[in-house]
Design a protein that fits this description.
Number of helices of chain B: 5
Oligomer: heterodimer
Shape of chain A: globular
Structural class of chain A: mainly alpha
Number of strands of chain A: 0
Strand content of chain A: under 5%
Amino acid sequence: MNAALGLEHTAVAAYRVGLPLLTGSALRAARVFHEHEREHADALARAIRALGGIPNRASALDEYTRGFPRLRARDDVLSFALDVENTALAAYIDALPQLSRGELRQRVAAIATAEAEHMSVLLGALGKPQVPHAFVTGKDA
Amino acid sequence: MRPRRARHEATRRDLLRRGVTMGGMALAAAAVPLPSTRRDAFAKPEGDAAILERAIRLEQSAVLAYESALKSGRLDERTERTVQLFHRHEQEHARALIAALEEMDGTPPEPPAPEQVAGLADLRTQREIVSFALGLEAMAVAAYFDALSRLEDSKLVQAAASIMASDGQHLVVLRQMLGEDPVPSAFEDGRE
């Protein structure tokens, strides 16, 4: 769960860094998705605490940005966000069978589906097919 | 969160190579209920096979609904292309679920007749058709969400989640067609 939380922290950082490069509908969508990723991180942190664990805290922003690709324009941001969402989705699909508590499994599936929905909007903004596959596993953006 | 990633990765690759992907959901009625009844659509079936049977019934109904939309003559070109794509996806979901059930020695249900899909015959405009599809897709997402707490087989759990995510993407496109917020919640459980 802490690995998933780390991915959510990364997604929050990616949107935060990308927002200044966006305008119009892409900016509006990214603002919403940024907030969603924060909600995901909060939910995962609560779940980790409920399981008796200690949730990892987010690192400083520049620690994330050092590992990010150079983002110069709108499409760089959207493509990178798509990548991050895709990675998170794949991690959730991988992790689901390891979660024995039904409620937690549902929570994670609801987060994964929201990430898939983010991907669909990002794909559309990039002029790509919004629903490229019948089975969304996070292996293809 | 991914300590056993390699094993699950191999499992999923195997499944996809064989064209077998599985999912599960819980839907109470034999006939497909109206989308507005989705909150009441869940039974508590015992075991993965029962969940699969209900999932197949719902996917078959979605196939039928999209087929009916394509025959209606009421869709503009762009909407028709989208409906064709979603029709194909639902067929793929149904085929995969049937294959999974048959692997468990189960017998897949017969596809429903149009009159068994409540509300389908009443659709008059493109907007009504898209709204109806949105309801069906949301019901499917809700049903997979429900099923995920009870499925036991690891492969079925992953497959159900991958179909749920696909149906979530359908929801995005249908909401956009209707001018709605494409992602209204950070947690998609089909109940928004």
